[in-house]
Amino acid sequence: MNVKNVGLEIMMGSLAAPQSDQEEDMLGTCAGSVSLFDLNLSATPAANHLSFGHHPFALSSHAMKAFLLALCVTLSAQTRPDASSEAVASQKAKLDSLWKKMTDRLESIDRSLAGVMGVAVLDLTDGREYHLRGDEIFPTASSIKIAILAELCRQGKLDDLYTLDAKDLVAESIVLEWLTPGVSRITNRDLATFMTTVSDNGATNVLIGRVGMDNVNTLMEKLGLAQTRLRRKMIDLPAARAGRENTSTPREMVRLLEALYRNRIEGSTEALRILKLPKADHFPKGLPKGITIANKPGSLEGVRTDSAIIYAPGRPVILSVMTAYLSDDEAGEVALAKSAAAVYDCFRIMGSASTYGRAIPQ
């Protein structure tokens, strides 16, 4: 038997026959294992001896058989499947099952909704995605304010001062209407906080004027978000009637938040800090108290939306749900909360479990 690459040669003569079925099986396995390592076997009836290069060693039949059995055991162990690879395959199968249950829940929510719902999910750990009408264009409602915030932070103008002007007040200027025109001075950061936390429309319109609508859309273009567009200010019904609607898709809203999460936009850290400020509507209603979420919900007649980074323990995820043609706006809000719960439940379990699925206390 010539063993390539190691200079090992085993000459087999009157080797004693295997004494048991187990030995015969082992020797057969050895031959199979040897072939896997590109080793040539050849029997020579001259004598039983083992040589390394030019140094022969005489062996009895029983010693030769013992050597071959030991070689067999060693090589067979080396060719067994790696336990760690088996664990990885097993884990993937289990995670696929959890993912399927999550998507089944989302699709069940969609089927029961009297309206149209689009969903996009991105696992920030392994990049896995799910889309339900993910590329359909929906009105963003106030979720477009994420894009405005991103451009504001990119420009670095958070500390610029603004003095309240009465002409900037519009419907749902929730904070600005309590301030004093011509007297109250606040920063763009304050305006961004009002815009994001309580969806102050007056604050939003001031920021649109300050950062520039075209600049917001240019940023979206640079990010490759072709359908995410700011086309009008808040509470501009004539523009809406003319078809100038603020729009995006579930997939693009997820990509916008991913760009902030991965710090691909200058000022992302500050933008996320503001987006993480507490809000009460939509996704938060489906999540446990205390869970960090960077989101901006939106509401219009027949439309409910929310897009968020949900910081599930050990496994953050981005979720966007956009609805339109709702016959019942409250039902749309319930659908968004249930969607957030379905995604969070899946990612909480995945993030807190070991490779084998045991929940590990944090």
Description:
With 362 residues, the protein is α+β, with helices and mostly antiparallel strands. It has two domains: 2-79, no CATH class; 86-352, Beta-lactamase. Helix content is 43%, strand content 16%. The chain has helices at 21-36, 61-79, 83-112, 145-155, 188-197, 201-211, 213-222, 237-241, 250-261, 268-275, 329-352, and strands at residues 2-3, 8-11, 49-52, 55-58, 116-123, 129-132, 138-139, 161-163, 185-187, 247-248, 293-295, 298-300, 303-310, 317-324. The strands form four sheets. Strands 5, 6, 11, 12, 13 and 14 form a six-stranded antiparallel β-sheet that branches. A hairpin with a 5-residue loop joins β5 and β6. α3 (83-112) runs antiparallel to α11 (329-352) and α5 packs across α6.
